[in-house]
Known about the structure:
The protein is an all-alpha fold. 59% of the residues lie in helices and 1% in strands.
Amino acid sequence: MNTCNDCGKKVEDGILFCTKCGAKINQPVKKSIKASKQKSNKVPIICILCAIIVLGTILGKDSIMYNYYRVKGNKESSISQSINYYTKALKLKYEQDLIVKISEKIKKDQNFETTLENLDWIVKEEDLNKIYVNAYVSKAKEQFESKNYKITWNYLEKASLYDYDIEKFEYYKDLVKLEEKEEALEANQDKNTSELQPDYIIADSDTRYLTIEELSGYTKRQLAFIRNEIFARYGYIFENEEYNDYFMSMPWYNPNSNFVGSESNLNAVERANLKIIKTLEQE
């Protein structure tokens, strides 16, 4: 029910003029439910649109920076700077091709171990282990080709700490042979206490009976050199290239084509020493 503003008479809803004074009755304004709903729906839509815009901006920025760091890493001549750019890109997006790029750069880095330590919290452990192995094996190859065999072993042993199988090293067999040869050469300094003649593995094996105890300290490879050393004293010419090269490098060795290597030409001490050496070689 409405009320007349002029005379105050109560009138029924829908009456346009007051039945008492004839004044126009003001009708109440009805709110549009549809408009209200549209207004309320606009709020979450706007929020969603804003969120999409912000997210797109962030993702777009990361993508731009990721590509920027990759390109800079590819063009950078400095190894450390190049790795630094690749690392920044990796933080934005972890990609395996970046791991490969970093691994290749580290192979050329002189301070690669320090560089690798800085990657501990950035590169996944499995990938980091592979980078360590690739770096150590690459350095081992360089040292082997430079004939630094001890350093080669050192790098291979470090690689083995990250589950690398040393026997898979491409120069493994050659490295073992060279090491055994070096051990035979060094045995002269370690085992020969006699000052009668230098450069012998066992200088007095032609005049002194050797014992199992002292010979047990040698490898089978070394024993073979000690055994052939007895014949080399007589100038025996070896067909085996390795023995020939070794004894030819000894200052006391004088090749004698007349000595055919018969044990009957040896003295009793030498024959006895040969027998015990052969026994140990066969064990």
